[in-house]
Each structure stands twice: as C-alpha cells, then as structure tokens.
Amino acid sequence: MKGRTMESVYSDSVAEYEVLRSACGLIDYSGIGLLRIAGSGASAFLSQVSTRSVDFLLEGQISSALLLNSDGSVLAEVLIHCHGTDYLIEIWPAQAAAATEYLVAAGNTGAHDVTVQDVGDEYCVFGIEGPQAPAIAQKFLPFPITSLSYAGFVTTPWRDDLELLVSRTGVTGEYGYKLHVPVAAGNELRRHLVDLGARQVGLAAVNVCRMEMRFANLEQEAAGVTPFEVGLQWMVDFGHDFIGKDALVAHWEAGPPRRPVCWIASDRLQAIPDPGSWLVVEDESVGAVAHAVYSPRLGRVIGTARVDADVAAAGLKLTLEQLTRPIRTTAAPFLVATSFGVPLE
To answer: In what order do the strands lie in the sheet with 86-91?
Structure first.
C-alpha cells in the first residue's frame, strides 16, 4: 500500500542476506505501485510513456521499461504485465508515488482512449527469492514450475474464493517469484509463505544482492541522470517514439559526460564511502561514487561510480580521495548467484 515503506531489517541484515543466497527470502513489497491500464488506446499510451513498445507483448508476458522525464532523465523503472488488451503496471516502492502521479496525469490528457486506475491499495505483493524459492512457488501452481518462464505470469485460484497473480521476476539474481493477493488476505498469505519455509528479509539485504548482480538501484543512483549514466540503455527501444526520446538522442550525440563502472575495494577499506565521494588518478578527479554496499560473500566493499570516458573500463586502479584507499574497476556481476548451480525442477 502506498505511503508505507519496505522494512530495512527484520533481525540481522547479514543473516537475511544469507537467506537470500542460500535458502528463500520473503520480501514484503509494502508501498509498491500498481496501476491498471485499460481501453482501446492502452498499448499506444504505454508505448508513448515508456521506453519500450508493448506491441510485441503477448498475454502472460512481462516487459521491463523506464519512464523518463521530458529531459531524458530517469523517473522510474516499471514492469508491464500484459493481460490481453489490458495491462498491469508494477512500480518499485521508492518510485511508486512519483510514477503513479505521472501516469495518472498522462492518462487524463485525452490523447488516448485509456483509463489509468491506481489499484495499489487493493493488493499486497510478496516476493520470494533464493535457490529454494521454486519449491515454495510450486505450491501455488497447478502445473510444473518449469513451465512458468522468466518474465511470465499467471493468475491461479487460491483458498477457493481468491485469485493470485504469480510471476517469475526478481531482483537478487536468484530464482525469484512475486505473488499478488487481495489486501484482505495479505497477512494470511504472508503466514502461509513463512510456514512453507520462506524467511522475512529486509531492504538492506535485498539491496546488497541487487548490487552484486549490478541491478541498478534507481533510488540511490538515478537522481537527474539518463539511462546511459546508470547502464540502463538496454531498456531503451529507439525504434518508437516516447516521452524523453529527443532529449535522450541529443544527450547521446553530445556524449554522456560520465559513464557508469563497477568497482571493488581492497580489504583495507572498511567504511562504505558516501555517494559523491571523489575518485582520483594521480591527484586528478576522474569521477565519483554513485552507490556502495558491503558484500558479505566477497568480504569487500563494492559499488558503482560515474567516471570520465577514458577510465570507464574494467581492471583500472582508482583512489577514493577522502579515504585515500584504492579501488579497482571490475566487470559485472560481482559474483555468480547460487541458483545458477541449482536445477529448476
């Protein structure tokens, strides 16, 4: 429900991190944004306001896309679920309020035959992620879990009189699923997931896993920047017109001022540097930290930065100016998710 925020920690963030990497974590997506888009102009509307055309989407498929401001900067990342001629839009909680306001206003312009309905208060959404998540998700499906493809979803009966939306999407690199349930049954579903073996995990642990996979953390990295500056250009389809496209093309032709890189610190660095901390080479500033976390599995501080083009490569040594500690740029992901070694069955 909007207005609520995700819990940062339930017990211990490192223990919760290990649950995600070795068992099954339960993520309560309090505050998630949900909008139902309907009408004969629904697909044209979504193609205009998002960076990906939805014309190719089939029923039961999900597409990830960006919403941009007119200047090409990132407003939010969304998941677009295709229900035939209607669509369900899912928005990460930190961007839900701004993106919901944006989409509702865009739908009210009269440019398309479309209705944009905010249904965020009608549902609870839970994520289950980890190598053991498929076994739990299977309990809610009448067919083999292997038949639910990545970025796919189904609706299925639950408790006789309720309907669940079950999707295969995630943010940790592990097997991941989401379950949407009417809000009145939210607590019952939460208890049932715990009884099945899922353990509640907070946003702090989730964000470490996101960083390890190099899934952009927009609430930390994207204030006022374009997709090029957070490595999300792969989510932009320049083959159709959308809000912010002209500005984005101009930005690319001019050359982004700085480019995103991943980095890993030496074991001498214990403190997590603040966003904006300067990076230097031979006393010359070449960029700044965008976001950083401590990875329990690697035993190192890892992060992202935006740097000058001539140092935007893996394997280069930079120095954190304020802490006088070395870091090394590296390719992503930082590690291989446990689920890659676990057969889906």
So the answer is: 62-68, 74-83, 86-91, 33-38, 115-118
Cα 278 to Cα 284: distance, rounded to the nearest angstrom = 10
Please give the tally of structural domains in the chain: 2
**Domain limits for position 180:** 13-209
Burial class (CB in 10 A: 0-12, 13-18, 19+), 144: exposed
Verify that 189 and 272 share a domain, yes or no. Answer: no
Which residue, 206, 77, 20, 300, is CA-closest to 330?
300
Taking only the tens place, the pLDDT of each residue in 118-136 is: 999 999 999 999 999 999 9
**What whole-number distance in Å separates Cα of residue 221 and Cα of residue 207?**
12
Residue 1 lies in a domain: no
Q: pLDDT tens, 231-279?
A: 999 999 999 999 999 999 999 999 888 999 999 999 988 899 999 999 9
CA distance 222 to 124: 27
Burial class (CB in 10 A: 0-12, 13-18, 19+), 56: exposed
Q: Is residue 68 located within the same domain as residue 203?
A: yes
Q: CA 216 from chain center: how many Å?
A: 7
3-state secondary structure of 342: coil
Residues 78, 191, single domain; the answer is yes
Coil, strand, or helix at residue 147? helix
pTM for the model stands at 0.95
Cα dist from 326 to 85, 156, 267, 282, whole Å:
53, 52, 9, 12
27 and 155 share one domain: yes
Instruction: Give the HSE-up count for residue 48: Cα atoms under 13 Å, Cβ half-sphere.
Output: 13
